[in-house]
């Protein structure tokens, strides 16, 4: 009996026990759905994160406040570094602005309630003050309208650029928000620009935002001490490391850090965020693969049990085949291929379910910013795992069938 005939025989056997086969294949399908679905969702999330960071560029880096040291070493005191203030950020820009492009921003508030006529947003909108360079450097795209002008920045004008989530809460779908006024902390602000949808790693935080000129943001703070972040972009990606060291020296001068002491600020390349996200999703892939594989092991045990029952029910058939000249190898191959065929059929059904489910999960987590993923690698892996599970669960029943005595098998009732 050749390989093709074995497959045909396996399909005939499957057709003869349709309900049992469907239930067994369904177990395999659930396992493959969990395995490939999780991996597809993770790929979709990673794709969305990559798109979010794609506009940042590998030639830029951020200077921020340094986190408080919370781990004490052999009696060393806990250190609390003061935040980067407006004067220091402006000094750095003046000192280093000829060597690189520099953008500044400050978080005015994270929980603002914004109003327009009778409508208002939830009290979770972000108000951010920026200069003329920040939006472009951080990958924000203006869908319509304009960026802040030099006049807006110098006069601390009451103008703003608004994210899509804020617009959707304040304006009707077909209305034009440009040049309309919104109310922020009791003041009127004219909308001069609308942002494209951006998304973020944990949801739509980058779309619940209103940008105002830097000086306007300082006015809105109402006397509070604001913290300023600085973005620096090197002219050439090959010069990033050198520019970073020069920027570190300039910032140490601005911050008056003593010689021999660590920096009182943190400096980090923008593309390091992408690398961090990739390492996180790598761990998630391992975890997802482990969960899916455990599910498939349970399916393999169920399939082995079904194949043992099948061998017992077809003992007389095995005896007839052996009496007609079938060798133990042929019998073993027949039952092994039958187990693999059941697994592959279940795996194909699982793949059909896994791809849309994985993409729906990724889209839900990333607030609709993830693109549709067809995970060819995980699909091939899923089929390979199905074949492995079929061999694993079918080997022992097939071996048992091949060792049956033909005379005793013919007597079996």
From TrEMBL:
Residues 21-248 form the MacB-like periplasmic core domain. The keyword Transmembrane helix applies. Its main location: membrane. Residues 291-406 form the ABC3 transporter permease C-terminal domain. Belongs to the ABC-4 integral membrane protein family. It comes from Flectobacillus rivi. The chain crosses the membrane at residues 21-42, 286-312, 333-356, 376-396. It is a multi-pass membrane protein. The keyword tRNA-binding does not apply. Keywords: Cell membrane, Membrane, Transmembrane, Transmembrane helix. Pfam families: FtsX, MacB_PCD. It is found in: Cell membrane. This is ABC transporter permease.
């Amino acid at each position: 009996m050749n390989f093709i005939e074995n497959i045909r025989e396996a399909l005939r056997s499957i057709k003869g026990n349709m309900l049992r086969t469907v239930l067994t294949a369904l177990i395999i399908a659930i396992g493959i759905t969990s395995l490939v679905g999780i991996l597809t969702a993770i790929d979709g999330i990673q794709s969305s994160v990559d798109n979010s960071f794609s506009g940042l560029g590998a030639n830029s880096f951020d200077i921020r406040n340094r986190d408080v040291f919370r781990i004490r070493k052999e009696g060393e005191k806990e250190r609390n570094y003061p935040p980067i203030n407006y004067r220091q950020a402006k000094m750095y820009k003046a000192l280093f602005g000829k060597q690189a492009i520099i953008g500044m921003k400050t978080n005015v508030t994270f929980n603002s309630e914004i109003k327009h006529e009778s409508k208002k947003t939830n009290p979770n909108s972000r108000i951010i003050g920026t200069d003329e360079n920040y939006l472009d450097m951080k990958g924000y795209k203006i869908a319509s309208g304009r960026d802040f002008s030099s006049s807006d920045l110098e006069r601390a004008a009451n103008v703003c650029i608004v994210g899509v989530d804020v617009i959707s809460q304040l304006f009707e779908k077909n209305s034009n928000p440009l040049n309309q006024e919104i109310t922020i902390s009791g003041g009127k602000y004219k909308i001069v620009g609308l942002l494209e949808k951006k998304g973020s790693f944990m949801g739509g935080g980058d779309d619940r935002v209103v940008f105002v000129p830097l000086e306007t943001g300082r006015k809105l703070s109402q006397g509070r001490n604001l913290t300023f972040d600085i973005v620096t972009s090197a002219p050439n990606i090959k010069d990033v490391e050198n520019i970073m060291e020069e920027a570190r020296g300039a910032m140490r001068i601005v911050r008056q850090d003593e010689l021999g002491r660590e920096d009182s600020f943190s400096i980090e390349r923008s593309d390091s965020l992408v690398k961090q996200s990739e390492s996180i999703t790598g761990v998630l892939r391992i975890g997802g693969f482990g969960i899916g594989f455990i599910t498939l092991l349970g399916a393999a045990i169920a399939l082995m049990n079904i194949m043992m029952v099948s061998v017992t029910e077809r003992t007389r058939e095995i005896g007839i085949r052996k009496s007609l000249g079938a060798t133990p190898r042929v019998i073993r191959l027949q039952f092994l291929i039958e187990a693999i065929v059941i697994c592959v059929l279940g795996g194909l059904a699982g793949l059909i379910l896994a791809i849309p489910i994985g993409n729906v999960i990724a889209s839900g987590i990333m607030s609709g910013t993830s693109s549709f993923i067809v995970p060819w690698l995980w699909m091939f892996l899923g089929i390979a795992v199905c074949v492995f599970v079929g061999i694993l669960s079918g080997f022992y029943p097939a071996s048992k069938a091949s060792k049956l005595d033909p005379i005793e098998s013919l007597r079996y009732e």
